[in-house]
Amino acid sequence: MEGLKKLYLAVDIGGTSVKIGLVDEDGNFRHTSEYPVNFDGYETPILETVVKSCSCFLTEHRIYPQQLTGAGVSATGYINTEKGSVDGGGGFIRNWTGSQIRERMEADFRIPVYVLNDANAAALGEVWLGAAMGRKNVVMLTIGTGVGGGIITEARLLLGRRGFAGEIGHMILHRGGKRCHCGNEGCLEKYAAMTVLVEDVRRAIEEGKVDGTDTEQVNGRWIFETIGKGNRDLEEIADRWMEDIAAGIVNLVYIFNPEMVILGGGVSSQKELFIDRIREKVTGMLPELFSRDLEIVAASLANRAGMAGAVYYCMKSMREGTAREKG
Question: Which residues are CB-contacts of 224 (< 8 A; sequence separation ≥ 6)?
Fold first, then answer.
């Protein structure tokens, strides 16, 4: 019966907005909304905005908290899954590190709340409802302003001791290379993020190496549209960028031996110019023993992946009675 299915609050907290959804136990999204979180430069702590937004969402859709079985929260940063807190990685976001998400939301809504990192949540979402349905060993990379990731081994999310596992972007690719905000040099994120490709293209335009548009108009979509029109100079820059992404994936394949690698982020919509080329590069760098039957595909859930994964994590944790650190 549709009306008797368990309902969960899904929350996906990013640096600019929070996405909120009502999801049932079968993964059907009943309602979704999005609210800004940086409207005053983070003067209002994000967690305050999230709690208020959740209350508005529930009121708008005439849902009482007691009708919910639980809440799954996907959040940016180093998320301590035991405490449901943001222990670090807040970066440019003021008043975020130290946020006690689980504690605050359980106090306000009186339902069980489970919290995990947004990239981990996206990987779980793809396994539950998306491109990796039915797969047990999966690696996901999200490529955007940074590089995030999630790792599924034998159908379980790899969390590590406190939930910090899967920080693929901080795998060191070039020792002694570019300085990363984490304090190390040569991290994958400093070579494989979409922002890196955009910066490389803008620099090439400024130096007269590439005929293009005003540098301020350069973004990922423009780059790949221009490559699609036959711009060989841009293609060479993008190819060097993809070499680093492929090298990172090869390292992960050797370590985790997945059956599928999922690529997320806006660039994943570029099948021929990105997904297919990454697949070609990765398989060319791996011995047949590791590349055999390896699938490299685009993520399919778009901006619902984090919400879906957070709910799935909540449901699994409640079923398994996952122990949580108190206080």
Answer: 238, 267, 270, 273, 274
Please give the Cα distance from 319 to 182 (Å, whole number). 36
DSSP codes joined into one string, 26-45: TS-EEEEEEEES-TTTT-S-
pLDDT score of 322: 57
Q: Are 150 and 160 in contact (CB under 8 A)?
A: no
Q: What share of the chain is helix, strand, coil (3-state, %, to 5)?
A: 45, 20, 35
Q: Confirm if 222 and 108 have CB atoms less than 8 A apart.
A: no
For β-strands 295-298 and 78-80, DSSP reports them as unpaired
Are the C-beta atoms of residues 73 and 11 closer than 8 Å to each other? yes
φ, ψ for residue 174 (rounded to 5)?
-130, 95
- What angle, 0 to 180 degrees and rounded to 10, lies between the N-to-C axes of helices 276-285 and 232-256? 50
Taking the chain (327 residues) in consecutive chunks of 10 residues, what is each chunk's mean pLDDT? 80 94 96 94 93 97 96 95 89 86 97 96 96 96 91 94 90 93 92 94 89 81 92 94 97 96 93 96 95 95 94 94 53
Cα separation, 91 vs 82, in Å, equals 22
Give the model's pLDDT for residue 320: 86
Please give the structure tokens belonging to residue 97.
């590190």
pTM of the predicted model as reported, rounded to 2 decimal places: 0.90
Q: Identify the bridge partners of residue 157 per DSSP, sorted by sequence position.
A: 152
Structure-block tokens of residue 170: 């901080």
CB half-sphere exposure, 280, CA atoms < 13 A: 9
3-state secondary structure 257-268: CCCEEEEECHHH
Which helix (H) or strand (E) segment holds residue 141: the answer is strand 138-143
